[in-house]
Amino acid sequence: MCTISLARDHLAPLEATYRDKSIFPIRDDDSIFVSLASFRDHLLGDTLRGAFDQAKHPEKLFVGAVVQNCFGLNPYPGEPGVQCRTGAQVVGKANGRDQTKVSDAPPDRNGVEEFCSSEKHKPYCDGGQIRVLYVHENESLGPAMARYYASKLWGGESYFMQVDSHLEFYEHWDELYANELKSAKSFPKAMLSSYPPGFQIENGGILEGEPSNGARLCTCTFSNSDVEAQIIRINTGVGYGGNEARPTQIPFVAAGFFFAPGAFLVDVPFDPYMPWCFMGEEIMLSMRAWTHGWDIYAPRKNWIAHQYRPGRMGLPKFWGSVGRLFGRPGPGFSNELQLRLIKRVKHLVGYKDCCTREKLEQAGDELVLEDVEHYGFGEVRSREEYLKWANIDVDARRCRPIQWCNRGELE
Fold first, then answer.
1. What pLDDT, on the 0 to 100 scale, is given for residue 1?
2. What contacts 84, CB < 8 A, 6 or more positions away?
3. Which of 49, 318, 348, 400 has its CA 20 to 30 A from that of 114?
4. What's the confidence (pLDDT) of residue 178?
5. What secondary structure letter does DSSP report for 85?
6. Strand order in the sheet with 249-250
7. Rounded Cα–Cα distance for residues 67 and 151 (Å)
8. What is the pLDDT of residue 231?
9. 198: which strand partners?
10. CB 332 within 8 A of CB 323
11. What is the largest CA-CA distance in the chain?
């Protein structure tokens, strides 16, 4: 597959040069780097405004945004561009089922341009606090790769925070998360993660009212969807009651929000060999972080909120762009690619029935093993220890209850 070859030829040399060391000296000033992977997102501008306007120390806030947009026809000289299209929008019902339609659309809003053109926020952009990589939407390789590229925009900030690009922020969220992390018993070898609460009514990136109690990521399932190939999916368990003295440990990391010291990127660098994968990154983040010695904590309060986006909203999805690029509209072709490449995750997690090295080579899928030894597990704790700790039986495809997590027993 040419995408793997391109990563081997152009990304692997950079990875090898800085393996097990930081590209930049890590600062000791409580600065925060926010990784934003944005796909055709109309709320990117609001997310940026909310992050800076609600921060206690916006001068210490830095953003790395990978903006995957449709720029329309003839966006600049020498570039013919493409006709932008909507997502699958619900236009009616037939036989009790939603009927959808994909239509022509104008070029996407540029949230970075909106933010940087305002008089209030322009100084942050002029001061280098917004770092951007623009990608044509038909060249998008999915969220895992977008987050890989966003991680390369980190510039040595004290903390690394990964979130989605459709958020609202509570007042002084930056200081609150930093202090919460410092209160974890394992700090500085600690990280925070959760699924933030949702919102639907857009409020310009501002989260109002009192912050809700945090939820712990304490459960998982083996997906029964054909598209997801029995990959492990994580979910919430019993939340905080509101009177806990400090945050407690959980076994899982959510890709849509985690907050960690910058040193995390040295121990757990993002994998450049995960194109087109929408599933699998969370269990890999969880296992890689824990086996490298990082303890994962759920924050006791929610100081951000996230817009969860069901298909009925009709927003563009990256798999639609993949299908159009290869002349196969719809999610089918993207799903075929993911089903092949997700075997990399399954190999590392330990799916013996399909994804041992021997079976992958017999099936002609050895390409998913490219440099796999550099993006697997650490030596502090083993894969087997993690699976026992998280009560996961890969052979039986079963996630059992994790009582220590639900009860908040482990600090």
1. 67
2. 70, 72, 104, 105, 106, 107, 108
3. 318
4. 98
5. B
6. 130-136, 61-69, 32-39, 159-164, 257-261, 190-193, 295-297, 249-250
7. 13
8. 95
9. 306
10. yes
11. 61
User: Closest by alpha carbon to 342, among 250, 221, 223?
Assistant: 223
300: nearest Cα among 169, 179, 180, 163 = 180
* Residue 380: per-residue pLDDT: 98
- Cα–Cα nearest to 19, from 27, 11, 29: 11
What is the residue type of 130?
A: I
Token reading at 187: 């700090």
Question: Residue 178: which H helix or E strand, with range?
Answer: helix 173-182
Burial class, 341, CB count within 10 angstroms (exposed 0-12 / middle 13-18 / buried 19+): buried
| Closest-CA residue to 169 (of 136, 131, 145, 199) | 199
296 has which bridge partners? 191, 250
- Work out whether the CA dihedral 216, 222, 224, 230 comes out positive or negative: positive
The DSSP 8-state label assigned to residue 254 in this structure reads B
What's the rounded Cα separation, in Å, for the pair 108 and 106? Answer: 6
> Tell me, what's the pLDDT at 334?
84
> Do 343 and 368 touch, CB atoms closer than 8 A?
yes
Mean pLDDT in runs of 10 for the chain (411 residues)? 89 96 96 97 98 98 97 91 90 86 94 98 98 94 96 98 98 98 98 96 96 97 89 96 96 98 98 92 97 98 92 80 80 85 96 96 94 96 98 97 97 96
- Predicted local distance difference test score (pLDDT) of residue 109: 96
Cβ burial, residue 138 (10 Å; 0-12/13-18/19+):
middle
